[in-house]
Design a protein that fits this description.
The chain is 40% helix and 21% strand. The strands form five sheets. An eight-stranded mixed sheet has the order 1-10-11-12-15-9-8-4. The N and C termini lie far apart (54 Å).
């Protein structure tokens, strides 16, 4: 959520961001409602003062008249505030200057790392490898869990845990605080982080309750300090969280229906940072968490590219967003494996996460989040990039101390 005064003072930038993100909202109506809200608030305050005077003077007749007028004004004010708040929650975040304008065809590759492997044999996809190595079972996964269900088995399951432990150990050594968050969250956490209302249909709801399954640890971890005033000395808050993630994948039917690329349930390690409301500082943390994700892929020896998301592809929340796409031979191209978002104070205003600055003034923190690693999607890249002609798969060296083996061979 943006501050209404910020919207007024930076109207052209906000209008540019609304147009760039293709968000349907009438800013003129919002500003008109805000004028009405302020006038009615002032009028209501004046009438309350008159009511208090009448009460002190024991003027029952005047008090009754003022009360009747106040009731009418308060009802009008409630209606205006309701419409005003609804529009305020629809205003998207601003975009920073580096964001390309347009749809996903305007996404910009800014760097690449590593070379895609060249095989002197016909490479297998991860499903063929998973069956040959007896580490992935889609058929029984569908039998038990339905469409997009899967089992990781044996050394495939060990590889998954090895990957998660490798990522966690790396980030803990960098000073991040480990959090294992609840994945069943209240609506306020989703609204506060900006996932609702836009992504509500992509979220599993607990029947009979106003509770939902989180599609990312960004939701509970960012909401961790909701309604709190933090000390300046506590910032920045650097969190690394591991959690199961759940997504309905509504709207993706027909896309990536085979394999482990697009699933209803997966495990993800997420980086979340809360920092001071300084754009230069938060951009520095944006590069930090981006660098952490890239370093992990480099250590694993996986080829990837970094993409700046265009305005229409980034969603309402971010002011700046990068994706990392990792090379997947079966796709004959790169597939998205990581996302990195700088959100400024957009979430903090919704969640009321504040701190007192050096002048003892209350300010909203800036928030950032980044996919450190998600599994089993990244297993696609590991299996396919490091496969051998006989179907065996070499394990990246950094993972071997966690797996206890250096390769997975056909059964």
């Amino acid at each position: 959520m943006l501050d209404i005064n910020y919207i007024k003072e930076n109207l052209e930038l906000v209008k540019k961001s609304v147009e760039a993100k293709k968000v349907k909202i009438d800013l003129d109506e919002l500003l008109e409602l805000d004028d009405q809200r302020r006038l009615l608030t002032t009028k209501a305050d004046g009438l309350r003062a008159k009511k208090n005077v009448a009460a002190k003077e024991k003027d029952i007749k005047a008090g009754k008249k003022v009360k009747e007028e106040l009731d009418i004004v308060e009802k009008q004010l409630l209606l205006v505030i309701g419409r005003w708040e609804k529009l305020m929650w629809q205003v998207p975040n601003i975009i920073l200057p580096d964001v390309p304008i347009g749809d996903l065809t305007k996404n910009k590759v800014i760097r690449k790392s590593g070379e895609p492997p060249k095989f002197d044999f016909t490479p297998k996809d991860h499903l063929e490898l998973g069956k040959l190595l007896d580490i992935i079972d889609i058929d029984r996964g569908v039998k038990v869990a339905g469409f997009r269900g899967y089992f990781l088995k044996g050394k495939g399951a060990i590889l998954h845990h090895a990957l998660m432990n490798f990522v966690l150990d790396t980030l803990l050594q960098k000073g991040y605080e480990l959090v294992i968050p609840p994945v069943i969250n209240k609506r306020m956490a989703f609204e506060g982080t900006g996932w609702f209302p836009d992504k509500e249909e992509e979220t599993y709801k607990i029947e009979g309750e106003d509770m939902y399954l989180a599609g990312t640890a960004e939701v509970p971890v960012t909401a961790l300090h909701a309604d709190e005033v933090l000390k300046l000395s506590e910032l920045p808050k650097r969190y690394v969280a591991i959690s199961s993630c759940f997504r309905t994948e509504v709207g993706s039917y027909g896309r990536d229906t085979k394999g482990l690329y697009r699933l209803h349930e997966f495990v993800k390690v997420e980086q979340v940072i809360l920092c001071e409301a300084d754009e230069k500082e938060s951009l520095g943390f944006f590069e930090e968490i981006e660098g952490n994700a890239e370093e992990l892929l480099q250590q694993l020896g996986l080829p990837y590219q970094v993409v700046v998301l265009a305005s229409e592809d980034m969603g309402k929340k971010p002011a700046l967003a990068y994706d990392i796409e990792t090379w997947m031979p079966s796709r004959e191209g790169y597939g998205e494996t990581h996302s990195n978002s700088l959100i400024l104070d957009f979430q903090a205003r919704r969640l009321k996460i504040r701190y007192k600055d050096r002048d003892n003034q209350l300010k909203y923190v800036h928030t950032l989040n980044n996919t450190a690693m998600a599994s089993p999607r990244i297993l696609i890249a590991i299996l396919e990039n490091f496969q051998q002609e006989d179907g065996s798969v070499k394990i990246p060296v950094p993972l071997q101390k966690y797996t206890g083996f250096s390769e997975i061979t056909p059964k």
